[in-house]
Amino acid sequence: MPEYSEFCLLELKDGRFTAGKWSPDNYEDKNSVSGKFIRGTGDSVSYEEVFKWHSLERYDLTSCLEDEEIDFINLGPEKEDAHKAVFKDFKSLKNGDFPKSEQYCLLLLMNGGMAGGRWDKLKENEGLFIYAPALASYGMDKVWAWTALSPDDIFEAEEEEENERRREEELNKNPSADPEIFKYGTDVDVYYQKALEKLLKEYPWATVTQMKKRTPWEIVPCHGQYVFGQSTKLYNGSVAVSEWKDGRTADEFIDFLCEYARDSVKNNDPAEKFRYGLDIEVYLEKAYENVKKDYRWVDKKMLEKNWRYAIKQVEGDWEFVRAYRDENDYTVCDCSSAERFIESVEYDYQSAALAANPVVATFAVPFGRIDLHGWYLERYEFSKLKTGDYKVFVQAGNRVTGGSREFFITPHCFEAPTYDEFLDRYLEIVPGASFGIDKEELLSNNKLKKFLGY
Questions:
Q1: Residue 24 in contact with residue 4, Cβ under 8 Å?
Q2: CA 407, CA 397: separation in Å to the nearest integer?
Q3: Do 92 and 164 belong together in one domain?
Q4: How far apart are CA 447 and CA 452, in angstroms?
Q5: Cα 334 from chain centroid (whole Å)
């Protein structure tokens, strides 16, 4: 068998060709043939499928790359009865020739080596060849020439998906409309207006804009006929449609639309949302005063460096909006009440205040293996800030993803007369059950106790 992780060309028992890195089931047993050839994450070939393998790591084709006129390379011994395979139609990415999506290819590399990889199209005329787990890949600048190997399940599924997309496009060129379902036509806003008339009896402030805050419904072609649905554009350019199937008439859809949008309308009462009027400064001042109680060094200019807020009309409705720095485009703050908006501004104030307060000392809490529901604690670090305040940074992750959070330790915690009482207050902010380190572990750490001033 190949050496562990050796990259090989494979001829399968059904006559197809592919490639992959050898991964034995038992690393210690050198005589075992059990294992798999890995082609990518979740993409491998079992040893039971393989008829012959041949190492691709033995060659140096550098001299061949120097000859632009070359059209045949013989890498095997020229003798009778030798097992051989001929690969033709090598193409160059530089010439604008690209594999089909998910096509597994034999590669001649710029460094003179040989390899294999599955083409991952990123966008038009751009992609890479994946050849191992965790998306290890050869970029376009690493590949001199490529030729497609045999189709496999992944490629055939991609081809069928593409064919289905084309069939769907053809069907949807002239869609039909069921007259019973679409008796008010194929403009979805007509149905929203009829639903709005019903909601206005219960919520006098209701608008179509409010109704559409929840994922809006459309009238879209699907399998050659119009349907009420919600569409999502997929990575490959096709559109997935979630079709409404709770009824068979236009009036049933209107009733459904009323119930679907009810909570969105209910939670957007302008009297509740703008209870302090339409002057944005009133809301910003309330947020500032709330944050100032704990973040004693904060000033209004800290927030202005990152965010600008306003109250603007969006599609006829007044909305809280914000823009990043000097950008012109505002985004809607989807807050159902004045208090919710003020809380969101408080969070932005807090983040800006922490960013403006330099760290002068840190203490990383030592810990062993801590499992946080499938993630593992990676960092748990206290920081002393220039103002004498403190914050803590917690980070966790697994093999493929992770996350982190930063917490400000409020002055209320430090008003506790003892370290024991301090921890009781601190753990209300950073609970041990959620972040992996409990009171007993922190209480016994005298270095941390001293770092925090106790």
A1: yes
A2: 18
A3: yes
A4: 9
A5: 22
Distance CA 439, CA 242 (A): 49
Residues 164 and 77 in one domain: yes
Please provide the DSSP assignment of 4-57 as one string: TT-EEEEEETTS-EEEEEEEES-SS-TT---EEEEEETTEEEEGGGEEEEEEST
For the stretch 230-266, pLDDT in tens is 998 876 667 889 999 999 999 999 999 999 999 999 9
Q: Answer yes or no: are the C-beta atoms of 321 and 273 closer than 8 Å.
A: no
Do 131 and 15 sit in the same domain of this protein?
Answer: yes
Query: In terms of domains, do 193 and 225 share one?
Result: yes
pLDDT band at 58, cuts 50/70/90? confident
Q: Is 380 in the same domain as 446?
A: yes
> Is residue 400 predicted with pLDDT exceeding 90?
no
- Residue 165, in any domain of the structure: yes
pLDDT tens-digit series, residues 10-26 = 999 999 999 999 999 98
Q: Which pair of tokens denotes residue 287?
A: 């947020």
Structure tokens at 160: 């069928």
Whether 172 shows a pLDDT value over 80: the answer reads: yes
3-state helix, strand, coil in the chain (%, to 5): 30, 30, 40
Write the pLDDT tens digit of every residue in 114-144: 999 999 998 888 999 999 887 789 999 999 9
What is the DSSP secondary-structure string of 315-384?
Answer: TTEEEEEEEETT-S--EE---SSHHHHHHHHHHHHHHHHHHTS-EEEEEEPP----EETTEEEEEEEEEE
Backbone dihedral angles phi then psi of residue 273, each to the nearest 5 degrees: -70, -40
Domains: count for the chain? 4
Q: Do the Cβ atoms of 217 and 233 come closer than 8 Å?
A: no
Does the residue 215 lie in any domain? yes
Provide CB contacts within 8 A for 232, sequence distance 6+. Answer: 239, 240, 241, 242
Task: Flag whether 14 is in a domain.
Answer: yes
Say if 45 falls within a structural domain. Answer: yes
* Own/partner long-range contacts of 257-260 (Cβ < 8 Å, ≥24 apart): 257/191, 257/192, 257/195, 257/211, 257/217, 258/195, 258/198, 258/199, 260/214, 260/217
Same domain for 84 and 225? no
Q: Are residues 31 and 162 in the same domain?
A: yes
